[in-house]
Specification:
22% helix, alpha+beta, 4-stranded antiparallel β-sheet, 181 residues
Length: 181
């Protein structure tokens, strides 16, 4: 270290010691004789509310979190939630997942749009069009030429970028098919 730095550090240390020695250890209260009040100033409503919230938090009382449209970050990802299927689904293809239904055929109709014929897990036949839904997805395309029906499956996985994936069901197995079978 150079002589200049040593001198500068010594000067700063001396000033710090002088300021600490001249400052009172505790603030002194003034009396009415000085013309200053001895009572603390009144607290505003905002300060009072903050103090109450801090006291509730420190005492262990629970607080609420409103995530809006986002996933609640305080809930475990491993926790199993009650699904709409368990609550009140009823019967029919609307309560079946994509893997439970099999494509039986496609009816080409120029007037009303193409129909896909599915066999459900209850061994009943169902006719679905583009836009119709099953439990975990919606039909987004029917191609009678290729014998292919495309579903947009909803995925509840916070690690994925897109909350869906496209699943294809075909009348015949394809090599590049993304099927859940």
């Amino acid at each position: 270290m150079t002589f200049r730095r040593i001198t500068w550090l010594a000067t700063m240390a001396l000033l710090t010691v002088l300021v600490a020695a001249t400052a009172p250890a505790f603030p002194q209260e003034t009396g009415e004789a000085d013309g200053l009040p001895t009572d603390p100033p009144p607290k505003s409503e905002a300060v009072e509310k903050i103090l109450q919230q801090q006291e509730a938090l420190l005492s262990g009382q629970r607080f609420a979190y409103d995530p809006g449209d986002r996933r609640d970050p305080f809930r475990s990802l491993m926790e199993i939630e009650e699904t709409k299927r368990d609550r009140d689904c009823g019967d029919g293809i609307q309560c079946m997942v994509i893997s439970e239904i099999d494509l039986g055929g496609i009816i080409k109709d120029a007037n009303d749009g193409d129909l896909a014929v599915f066999t459900g897990s209850d061994n009943k036949g169902y006719f679905l069009r583009v836009g119709d839904s099953v439990f975990d997805g919606t039909i987004i395309g029917i191609d009678p030429r290729l014998g292919l029906v495309t579903f947009r499956q909803e995925i509840d996985d916070p690690r994925r970028i897109k909350p869906y994936r496209d699943v294809k069901k075909s009348l015949q197995a394809l090599d590049n098919e993304e099927s859940i079978r």
